[in-house]
Amino acid sequence: MNIFQMSFLGSILISIMLLFHKYLIKYIPKRKMIVLWYVILVRLLVPYRGIQCYRSSIRTTALYKGVTKVIGNSSFAKNYSCNNINFFQIVWLVGSSCLFLFFLFLYVKGLSRYRYAKVISNEVVDRWLEKHESKRKISIKKSKNIEVPLTYGVLRPVILLPEEVYTSEELCYILEHEYGHIKYGDIITKLFVVLATILHWFNPLIWVMFCVVNHDLELACDETVLNRLGYNERKNYAYSLVSMTEKVSNQFMLVNNFGDNNLEERIVEIMKYKKRKNNKFIFYVVIAIFVSLFMVSSSVVFANSSFGTSSNMIIPSEEEIKEKGFPKNSFGETYGPEIRDLDYEPDLMLAQNEEGVKGYIRKKEINGNNVNTIEAALNANKLNQQEINMYLQDGKTIVGIFKLSGD
Q1: In three state form, how does the secondary structure of the chain look?
Q2: 103-159 pLDDT, tens digit each
Q3: How far apart are CA 43 and CA 37, in angstroms?
Q4: What is the dihedral of CA 306, 311, 315, 320, to 10 degrees?
Q5: pLDDT digits over 283-313, tens only?
Q6: Inter-residue contact 36 to 286 (CB < 8 Å)
Q7: Cα 194 from Cα 99, distance rounded (Å)
Q8: Residue 358 near residue 60 (C-beta atoms within 8 A)
Q9: d(Cα 119, Cα 73) in Å, to the nearest integer?
Q10: What is the rounded end-to-end Cα distance, in angstroms, of the chain?
Q11: Hey, where are the domains in the chain?
């Protein structure tokens, strides 16, 4: 599966998520909404193509009767001459590389800004740390280089506060919010979102997802704080959020900050807050639907596509073969179309089945040691009704099934 296919399938799930986002967020705890985003992230980052989804529909006719046979001298061999990297792949690679360098620059810049932060030690902070023990040591620091509280770090998380005076109540709200990010690993979630953005930068829906996921993480932490502190604290918490957000500057994407730019919706959600019942049934139903869409989308797309015509397929032209001989893969096997003017054949022979799937079939799998051509094998009735795999030129990546028939 190539990156464009992964992006297309991910776009289907993102569209469904965005379509029902406002409805789902009313009935599912906001922290569990992040789980749904993870299903989409897996779709975008893992090249899963379904479980042998092509076997059920591929059929081939007798090899020696028609044009959907082993391909020899034809325009097909010329039109798909070997170009490992096409123009679109180059553009994608350049875009991804530039975006990676951009995020890397922001990361390094952020670390340099936080480098000289000083550890805070006072009665309120010490008491809060005692109540919030964690396997990962949490540090609370302050820095003059930031304007709003934020959290960064995975193995050694740091809650970073600006150099200003907070009341005990405000400090409690800030620390509880940032602790929610640490407890649920929101930095890791953001890392996956950034990786998906780097790989799928050309897809507008990915950028929409980037913004919505970051906002959902803040809503989830707001809900976590109110679950801990109680319904009566929502007005004071909302007021603290407003006062912090007035000072928001553009922070690095791989940190979590107390305020964010989409303030209105957060305030509305805080004021509408009611402790939700843990409605596991709705959540599991939605997860089942998303996972089913994940599986079905892969199977449907790849069951109806011609894998052999992908950009990964290398087919040497007749001129190249006559000039240099058949190319070899990493196993030392030669591959290419049959050339009538030559008295020898490649180890991997180019073929096309009835469904239009093109790939290489291994010569030794069809003729054994006694015959030299497919037709001879069929005429000898050695492989009647046998199914063999079709591969890319590497001789190991299966792209389809070829059914030999002597009828």
Answers
A1: CCHHHHHHHHHHHHHHHHHCHHHHHHHCCHHHHHHHHHHHHHHHHCCCCCCCCCCCCCCCCCCCCCCCCECCCCHHHHHCCCCCCCHHHHHHHHHHHHHHHHHHHHHHHHHHHHCCCEECCCHHHHHHHHHCCCCCCCEEEEECCCCCCEEECCCCCEEEEECCCCCHHHHHHHHHHHHHHHHCCHHHHHHHHHHHHHHCCCCHHHHHHHHHHHHHHHHHHHHHHHHHHCHHHHHHHHHHHHHHHCCCCCCCCCCEECCCCCHHHHHHHHHCCCCCCCCHHHHHHHHHHHHHHHHHHHHHHHHCCCHHHCCCCCCCCHHHHHHHCCCECCCCCEEECCCCCCCCCCCEEEEECCCCCEEEEEHHHHHCCCCCCHHHHHHCCCCCCCEEEEECCCCCCEEEEEECCCC
A2: 999 888 888 888 888 888 888 888 888 888 778 888 899 988 888 888 888 888 999
A3: 10
A4: 160
A5: 667 777 777 766 665 555 544 444 444 457 7
A6: yes
A7: 10
A8: no
A9: 74
A10: 34
A11: 75-82+312-403, 87-189+221-272
* Cβ burial, residue 295 (10 Å; 0-12/13-18/19+): middle
pLDDT per residue as tens digits for the range 316-352 = 888 888 888 889 998 889 998 877 777 778 888 888 8
Q: Average per-residue pLDDT in the chain? A: 75
Half-sphere exposure (Cβ direction) of 100: Cα atoms closer than 13 Å: 10
- How many angstroms separate the CA atoms of 44 and 51, rounded? 18
How many angstroms separate the Cα of 197 from the Cα of each of 211, 293, 298? 11, 21, 21
175: nearest Cα among 214, 228, 251, 136: 228
Instruction: Give the per-residue pLDDT at 234.
Output: 78
pLDDT at 247 over 80: no
Is pLDDT of 215 > 50? yes
pLDDT score at 268: 73
* Both tokens assigned to 198: 């780097």
Measured from the Cβ of residue 346, the count of other Cβ atoms closer than 10 Å reads 24
Residue type at 382 in one-letter notation: K
Residue 139 — φ and ψ, nearest 5°? -110, 140
Question: What is the model's pLDDT at position 74?
Answer: 38
Residue located via tokens 């875009």: 95
The one-letter amino acid at 72: G
Beta bridge partner(s), residue 350: 360
